[in-house]
Amino acid sequence: MTPLPASSPSPPSSPRPNTAFRRLRGQLSPSEFAAAVRRAAREIGEQVSCDPRYIGRVESGAIRCPNYAYERVFLHMFPGRTLTDMGFSPREAVRGHRTRPTAAPGPAPGPVPRPRPAPGSGPAPRAGPDTGTGPRTAPVDSGDPLRRAFVIQEPVGAPGGRVGETEAASVEEAVRRIRVLDDRHGADSIYPHTARPLNAAYALLDAGVRRRSIADRLYAGAGELAISVGWLAHDSGRLADARAHYAEALATARVTGDPALEAHAFCNTAFLARDAGRPREAVRAAQAAQRAAGRLASPRLLSLIALREAGGWAFTDRAGCERALLRAQALFCRGPSDADPEWMSFYGEAELEGLEAQCWSALGEWGRAVEHARRAVALQNPHFTRNIALFTTELASDLLADGAPDAAAVAAGRALALMDQVRSARIRLMLDETARVLRPHARNAVVADFLARYEAAPGAV
Predict the structure, then answer these.
(1) In b/e form, how buried is each residue of 197-230, taking b as 16+ CB within 10 angstroms?
(2) Which of 341, 157, 177 is nearest to 260 (CA)?
(3) What one-character DSSP code corresponds to residue 345?
(4) CB 394 within 8 Å of CB 430
(5) CB under 8 Å, gap of 24 or more: what pairs does 254-259 form?
(6) What is the pTM of this model?
(7) How far is CA 43 from the centre of its chain?
(8) Which of 31, 153, 286, 304 could bridge across to 270 with cysteines, CB 3.0–4.6 Å?
(9) Contacts 24+ apart (CB under 8 A), 94-98
């Protein structure tokens, strides 16, 4: 993609070099130290793409606090040391104050009403034309990480118990673990387990919180948890549940005056509306997300929101879609910022390419859709297994529409191989449709080979 010219954001204050981290590197070159970081990540099952440039940014002070994946790696590499010992700033100073405007002193906000039933309370019915529910699939064996993902520390006797740092941190950690599991495995095996942590998070709010800083973290954490659960519902085909969870997160954002949470809720609502066949609602939700995100300093967030808007316009107004795509590209080219929300870790060049491919596909521009979908697959970080499966499936669909059934079958075969690791009703239904459209081409040997493997795979329709 050719970078588009864009105005530069206001220059940040000069960073302070991180001399403590530089001392930890010792006599290793930045390249050697980056290799050591990658090795340490593999030892604990993390995925980081550390390179000399990243090490340089840390040592120059441009990265004031690492993301959670790097945090776990660094703590593994240097046991006994804290992030502060390594020269990093507290996470609250880097993330919270940049993305969430400081509220005026006062009592903690009141509870948020929760008008919907808890998720995962029963088995999911098979997908139908109007139910918005997805097919059941065999669970992925995620072992201990799956169980740990849903542990939220509740105070003894809650409601009414004492709520503090431990409880706020447990909600935040539940959100992070759920996102990591979704990145790797998709939603179907995770969503049924989310009723307990979501109810626990809101029970903590009902228990009462004396410190405003803890209350703000709990409300933000509960809202982000509702969005994460909503996304799991969306990806597993339960669109009505997803809509309710996003509405709950939006109510939480409005109660607390949290623009970052509000922008996230509207951003996901726009994506859901597009998938539910309501493109005009998708545009309106994306525009509402832009208004909320305007109070933040994250061009990357605005870029993603512009892509959500483009996704809605693609079904109603080609010119509007193209304008939104250009805006998304220009904002993306401004680069990352310390104000980028943590949940946006998935949004890189691969996601930009993939979402643009979806727009060209909706516009019937199959050749352009294929071009962008190919780049999305090639650029995707291996950690995001679910997204690799998604974009590979979309590539197969676009190739088929572009008149290349043999190439489509090859791509569909790659996606099918990933479905052993990924449980996503949304992706599975797309792959099922591709297989259905490929059947008339079964005399092609490549297509026939794919169809034989597809029919033999569990869950084939």
Answers:
(1) bbebbbbbbebbbeebebbbbbbbbbbbbbbbbb
(2) 341
(3) G
(4) yes
(5) 255/109, 255/110, 255/112, 255/219, 256/103, 256/109, 256/216, 256/219, 256/220, 256/223, 257/101, 257/103, 258/100, 258/216, 258/219, 258/220, 258/223, 259/100, 259/101, 259/292, 259/293, 259/295, 259/296
(6) 0.69
(7) 24
(8) 286
(9) 94/64, 94/65, 94/338, 95/65, 95/338, 95/342, 96/216, 96/217, 98/296, 98/297, 98/338, 98/339
Reading the block at residue 41, the tokens are: 């990540």
Residue type at 379 in one-letter notation: L
| 15 DSSP assignment | P
Contact 239, 132 (CB under 8 A): yes
Distance CA 451, CA 461 (A): 11
What is the distance, to the nearest Å, from the Cα of residue 340 to the centroid of all Cα atoms in its chain?
A: 13
Contact 78, 66 (CB under 8 A): no
What is the Cα–Cα distance from 186 to 164, expressed in whole angstroms? 32
Q: What is the pLDDT along the chain (461 residues), one digit of tens a residue?
A: 433 333 333 444 557 899 999 999 988 888 889 989 988 888 887 777 788 888 988 998 888 888 877 888 899 899 888 889 999 987 655 543 344 444 444 455 555 545 444 444 433 333 333 333 343 334 444 444 455 555 565 554 455 567 788 888 888 888 888 888 877 777 777 888 888 888 888 888 887 777 888 888 899 999 999 999 999 999 888 899 999 999 999 999 999 999 999 999 999 999 999 999 999 999 999 999 999 999 898 999 999 999 999 999 999 999 999 999 999 999 999 988 888 998 888 899 999 999 999 999 999 999 999 999 999 999 988 888 888 999 999 999 999 999 999 999 999 999 999 988 888 888 989 999 999 999 999 999 999 999 999 998 876 65
CA dist 321 and 314 (Å) reads 5
**Sign of torsion over alpha carbons 67, 68, 74, 75:** positive
